[in-house]
Amino acid sequence: METRDRKTLTRRVAPHAAVLLLAILAALAGALTTPESLAADNPGFPDAGAAEPAGKTPAQWRVIWGENPSRRAVISWSTSEATEANTVYYDTVPRKADLAAYRHKAQAGVNGRYTSRGHKLHYHHTVLEELAPNTTYFFCIGSDGQFSRELHFITAPADDADVKFLYGGDSRSDRAGRRAMNQRMRALFQADPAILCLVHGGDYIHDGDDMAQWSEWLTDHELTVTAGGRVLPVVPARGNHEAGDVQYDEVWADTGGRGKNYFRTMLAAQVMIVNLNTEISAGGDQARWLEDTLRDAAGVRWQIANYHRPAWPAVKQASAAKQHWVPLFEKYNLDVAFESDGHVIKRTVAIRGDKADPTGVVYIGEGGLGVKQRTPDPKRWYFDGGITGSASHLQKVTVTRDQLKVETILHDGRVFDTWQTGPRKRD
Ligand SMILES: [Fe+2]
């Protein structure tokens, strides 16, 4: 009996030891890679282009995606001073910031001063609607006669197209690390134009009511813009470090409803992301919405979840997502759930009914977009067959008709882990 137990123990521990060794090697490599060396690896990245807002000049521009990014986008920006006339000029061909040449313009319908005790900064949100799917939109932002350079973004496809996107969370409390990860995102985005957007898993900054911190984050986000001026749209989710803070909706334009912030995003006809909010009740209205959404999407081939605090954590204890959402994920056969908050790397084994099951749901992520990494607990049963690690990272997700692939990519560009799955039967 004793011998058998020891053998069992050996089999269980050996994979974890290998994972730990990999994590240590990854952490050592990370310590040797500075943001400067990342920039040197990617010539053409300007050091500037990410300045704090000054006067009425539009700065901290961003493209925000919600429910239907093939037809609708929000273009947002900040100014240091209050402004009266706030306009986005846009077209499907480049106009080189010749304002009179743009065929469309839209006024910022929502303008105000970010809530702050001391930091003076103003927000502007312009909704672009009735856009064409899978189309490049060139745009120039104007506030009271001051203008941005011409930027562009590409709308999501509306048909059964292949898509790629980046996933990551926890970009708080290590600004140098965050800037390095933003440069890594830009490198990936430039190298692979098929990438559509960044799905963010929350915890952008440390204090969600501190506009000085948000301002730094928004400024740093400009580092994800390609040298050619393509903006990486953001699909946002709320983290516990911005739980209940009104600034979150001032930054992200009430995406998913003010204070509610849960919504589905169709990245293509057959690719759905359900973005959930772990900082309000996971049960009640949100759980009912989730069940309705998953039930109604039975014909959608790929179904993905995005939320902050994990159901299957590698560091902390399970959030309410485990009680309220996991049974629905299993009932409706979700493909993969992305989780943040732990500041580690993790991929679980497929889980169904509180045990490993190849028909179950895989949980990936835990947050590494520029935050000091913690030490995961690889002995939790759901990592037997999964992975854990500790290094700044993000996920690159590639979705085709035949396969959904998730690559966990470290700050220096190395692929730490690859997981892939085929389409489910959902009839
Ligand atoms: Fe968190």
Global shape: globular
**Architecture of the largest domain, CATH level 2?**
4-Layer Sandwich
CA-based gyration radius: 21 Å
CATH class designation of the largest domain = Alpha Beta
Number of helices: 8
Count of discrete structural domains: 2
Number of strands: 24
**Could you estimate the helical fraction of the residues in percent?**
10-25%
Arithmetic mean of pLDDT: 90
Walk me through what this model shows.
By secondary structure, the protein is an alpha+beta fold. The chain has 2 domains: 59-63 and 70-154, Purple acid phosphatase-like, N-terminal (Immunoglobulin-like), CATH 2.60.40.380; 163-421, Purple Acid Phosphatase, chain A, domain 2 (4-Layer Sandwich). The protein is 22% helix and 28% strand. The protein has helices spanning 2-32, 35-41, 175-191, 211-221, 246-252, 284-296, 321-324, 326-331, and strands at 59-64, 73-79, 86-91, 104-107, 110-113, 122-128, 136-143, 146-147, 151-154, 163-168, 195-200, 234-235, 263-268, 271-275, 302-307, 336-339, 345-347, 351-352, 355-356, 362-365, 387-389, 393-399, 404-410, 415-421. The strands form 5 sheets. A 7-stranded mixed beta sheet has the order 13-14-15-16-20-17-21. A 6-stranded mixed beta sheet has the order 12-11-10-22-23-24, covered by helices on one side. A hairpin with an 8-residue loop joins β1 (59-64) and β2 (73-79). α2 packs parallel to α3 and α3 (175-191) packs parallel to α4. The longest helix has 31 residues, at 2-32. Mean pLDDT is 90; it is low at 1-20 and 22-49. Residues 203, 239-241, 308, 341 line the site of fe (ii) ion. Fe (ii) ion binds at residues 203, 239-241, 308, 341.
